[in-house]
Amino acid sequence: MRSLKSFLPIRYIITCGLISLIATSDCSGLEPDEVLVVANRFAAKSVWLAEYYMKKRDIPKANLVTLKLTDKETLRRDDYEKRVAVPLRKFLKKETYGKIRCLAIMYGMPLKIAPPELSGKETDELENLKEKRLSLEIELGSAEDENDKKRINQELDSIKKSIKTFKKSHDKAASLDSELALVKSKEYPLDMWISNPYYPGFKGKKGRVKRDDVLMVSRLDGPEPDVVKRIIDQSIATEKKGLKGTAFFDARWPDPGEKQLSGYRLYDLSIHRAADVITRNKIMPVVKDDKEELFQPGDCPNAALYCGWYSLAKYVDAFKWQPGSVGYHIASGECTTLKNRTSSVWCKRMIEEGIAATIGPTGEPYVQGFPLPEIFFTLLTDGYFTLAESYLVALPYLSWKMVLIGDPLYRPFKNRIAHTMPAPPDHVQMRCL
Q1: 133 burial type by CB count under 10 A (0-12 exposed, 13-18 middle, 19+ buried)
Q2: Does 355 fall in a domain?
Q3: What's the whole-model pTM score?
Q4: In this structure, are strands 246-250 and 286-289 parallel, antiparallel, or unpaired?
Q5: Does 205 reside within a domain?
Q6: What's the pLDDT tens digit per position in 129-180?
Q7: Cα-based torsion angle of the residue sequence 113, 119, 122, 124 in order, rounded to the nearest 10 degrees
Q8: Partners of 65 in beta bridges
Q9: Whole domain around residue 130: which residue ranges?
């Protein structure tokens, strides 16, 4: 079972040697023939969009797997194992497909995996805790002595914490995409998360899975098929001319400088550092706001890059997204749905409003479940790294809640290489995700 020690603060470890942390051998970055496209035969336009994408990206026709699944956004855990994991593992074992390093999940595939029911022992444990809580609440209601009230309140607080801890440690829900990142590995626990061996913060630490067990995963999805086609077309078109516009970074507090931070403060500092990277490398104009208020409608014209927080499941229409734009909002439930017409979660609304790539969780991920902004935007704007590569290295945990939406092969700053670097730097020649 995943220990709650996993919730200890992630230390701020980003240095100028970031790129070297992902270098292991002399192989190139993600190529079209290394992408396996996964579509749902029971969802309208899913296979059509898969074939459209493969043709546009020159992905071999053989690199397509079609599954028979519900067209709903939630998949049962047993259906995941039988109808998704088993056929994909069988496909990936074929010798001719040994090059596959990335899965492109198409429109029509489920978004998340429901947790399995608790075992009898687990149910009893939770029910006992709830009964103790109820008993203490009744006792508190009839207590008259102040010392008794104080004692009961202390015991009640302890029981409530135990219930919260139980629920956290038995959280087996996941996004389909995050689970699929480990589809090659059959043996790993489902409670909570699995440390990502590519994440720099875990370098040198023994994890539950090895790099060879991990696949990159990105999703080409949205509210409607036409939106997905637009994402594909815009991503390819933007690569030819380069992503243009303004980068908007919405921090909540001023930059604290060189400090060891964790939790919310760590991620806020990382937003500052991401903005500084874009500014220092003269990639595009940057607007960095360190006030607690969010960007307001009209504040972000020509938005090409974005990272900020915190408006839970309530998109703020502050942006005029440029074609090919990339960004994400750090909040707890911004990818709980991509299809619900009435929902205002950020991923869905950003896609509807024109963004080409975004990131969000299908459930409560805790802040340390998000990709660290500085790593993601540093790699993405490097020019050599694809969207899927940038995301994987920035992501702390797998078998968890996060989803990347966008073309995995997308390189919005591809043209920076030709204009700013006469030859690939050593870290690119060496990198191997």
Answers
A1: middle
A2: no
A3: 0.84
A4: parallel
A5: no
A6: 788 888 878 887 888 888 888 888 888 888 788 777 676 666 688 999 999 9
A7: 130
A8: 38
A9: 120-169
